[in-house]
Amino acid sequence: MITLKKNDVVGKYTVEHQIKGGTVASTYRVSDSNGTPCFMKLYDMAEVPSSMMKDDTVSEIAYSRQIKHENVISYIDDGAEVLSDGNRYAYLITNFFTGKLLSEQLASGVTYDWESAKAIMTNVLAGLLYLHESHGLNHNDITPRNIILEQVGSDTYSPKIIDLGHVSKTVSGVPPFSVDDLTLQYCAPETFTGCYEKKSDTFSAAAVLYSMLTGKAPWDVEIPAGLQYPAKKKIVRNARKQPLQTEGFADKGLTKTDVDLIFACLERDVDIRLTLNDFYDLLVGKKTDVPSSARKDGSSDDFTPSETSQPQTHEEAVSTTVQIKKKTGGGFADVAGMQTLKDELTKRVIWVLKDREKAEKYRLTPPNGMILYGPPGCGKTYFAEKFAEEAQFNFTMVSGSDLGSTYMHGTQGKIASLFKDAEKKAPAILCFDEFDSFVPSRGSSDANQRGEEVNEFLAQLNNCSKRGIFVIGTTNRLELIDPAILRKGRMDLHVEIPAPDAETRASIFKLHLRERPVPEDINVEELATMTENYAAADIAFIVNEAAMMAALADDLIRQEYLVNSIKCNKSSLGEVCVRRKIGY
């Protein structure tokens, strides 16, 4: 096998440096004619066995041409050359990544908490499922050295599967690739007898997940250098006769269910082991129960989560910033005006969710969710909070940062975990502030990277009321939300919160002047007339500014302070705001 040097040329690619050598193939960093960096894998055709060929082409090259997925290394080009040693070589060009191999991270002592490890593995499983379902291929070599964390932002990483040198259809017998370079600690037991199938990738992926949490492979054992495959295989088999250790799992935020999932995917009996689809669905929360038949291998019955990993006021599956708990306060009594809306929601939502026995008797179906829309500053978020207080349900206000992830598509798993937590706390209200930023209309420029997250919301919103979850979304731009989210059976109620009318503005003044030092002759009707087309937030600011002027003068909050504050502060809604009837 030739060893290329800096500035050697293969096809239209210039070598920068070698990455890894080998007998059959070696890899290099190269640049194309435009100076763009790429990876090149170079195959010595005299050394490539016939089992690694497909239609007169190296099978890895043939498969790479077909594969296009954001979590799998991307094909760019291939070709063949006779190089300076007189031998014929084939080459495969793939896209270059800026980032670190997962194996490098683990070797440097980095380990991951449960949420971060799940975010990485969710992406890896998405790539594997694509190989399985779109091309009928198994990767057969999922290890930390074949997962790269591509840096796509200052603190954002996209996990990608690399090295397709062992990709194949399901194998039973002699595999069509070399087994000498496999890392056996990550190989499924059935592969030692020549059986490579989809569930083999399940085992390997779970082994990688285990290593991210612990810093080592499951049943970790040192294999001396220079051993042949049969001897290495015997060492790994003997190590796996011992129970799988869960030391340190509790400190990483795992629950017993999470540990059961890992055991079910590392099951040595391939017939009992979870499928890759089940692994993915359980990891992202689409499914919640690990089949009991898949927990035989090693059992996690002795696992006891630490205090820090146990739920306190909420469970830690999403983020420490998201708390699902009862919200105390005055409820609708603190909401000025909108009596018709308050009465309707009490009857149509609160009562049905609270009195489940009667609702079931009359087969009443509670709504799944409600969109509160209208101009900014008109009290949509405030109303949602007071609705939760009135209902006395568990509640959380969710912002975009709460579901953010440093890994691409990590948000998808956090959405599923959030709904799972809400179900445990049912009846519960999830309120998404600026909902249009969570579920932008697919096909819009803002939704290019959010399709999977919108799909996750669609799946979670389907009949979520049956799980005791009521969803509220607030937005200033209803038209930006994906239409599928707004249909009946998902966000059933569409409620406009417009600029307050005169009666409501008078009530808002009363509400904000309550328990402040005011004279008896305050004329809130006059103030309401002066604030036509003002938002509720505008009125709150006006009252606070008037109170400040009165405090500086050591005086009561008199009418003139309020009038002067109105004159100094224009409406944040502009000159015209069309008021429409609140409806469903």
Explain what you see.
- The protein contains 17 helices and 19 strands.
- A hairpin with a 2-residue loop joins strand 5 and strand 6 (57-58).
- Mean pLDDT is 85; it is low at 306-321 and 576-584.
- Helix 3 (114-135) packs across helix 11 (410-424) and helix 16 (536-552) crosses helix 17 (559-568).
- It has 584 residues and is an alpha+beta fold.
- The protein has helices at residues 59-66, 102-107, 114-135, 198-214, 229-239, 256-265, 276-284, 339-354, 356-361, 380-391, 410-424, 451-461, 483-486, 502-513, 524-530, 536-552, 559-568, and strands spanning 9-10, 13-20, 25-31, 37-44, 53-54, 57-58, 75-82, 88-95, 99-101, 147-151, 157-161, 171-172, 195-196, 325-326, 369-373, 394-398, 428-432, 469-475, 493-496.
- The relative contact order is 0.07.
- It is elongated.
- The strands form 5 sheets. Strands 1-2-3-4-8-7 form a 6-stranded antiparallel sheet, covered by helices on one side. A 6-stranded mixed sheet has the order 14-16-17-18-15-19. Strands 9-10-11 form a 3-stranded antiparallel sheet.
- The protein has 4 domains: 9-95, Phosphorylase Kinase, domain 1; 99-309, Transferase(Phosphotransferase), domain 1, CATH 1.10.510; 325-496, Rossmann fold (3-Layer(aba) Sandwich), CATH 3.40.50; 502-568, Orthogonal Bundle (Helicase, Ruva Protein, domain 3).
Summarize the structure.
With 584 residues, the protein is an alpha+beta fold. The protein has helices at 59-66, 102-107, 114-135, 198-214, 229-239, 256-265, 276-284, 339-354, 356-361, 380-391, 410-424, 451-461, 483-486, 502-513, 524-530, 536-552, 559-568; strands at 9-10, 13-20, 25-31, 37-44, 53-54, 57-58, 75-82, 88-95, 99-101, 147-151, 157-161, 171-172, 195-196, 325-326, 369-373, 394-398, 428-432, 469-475, 493-496.
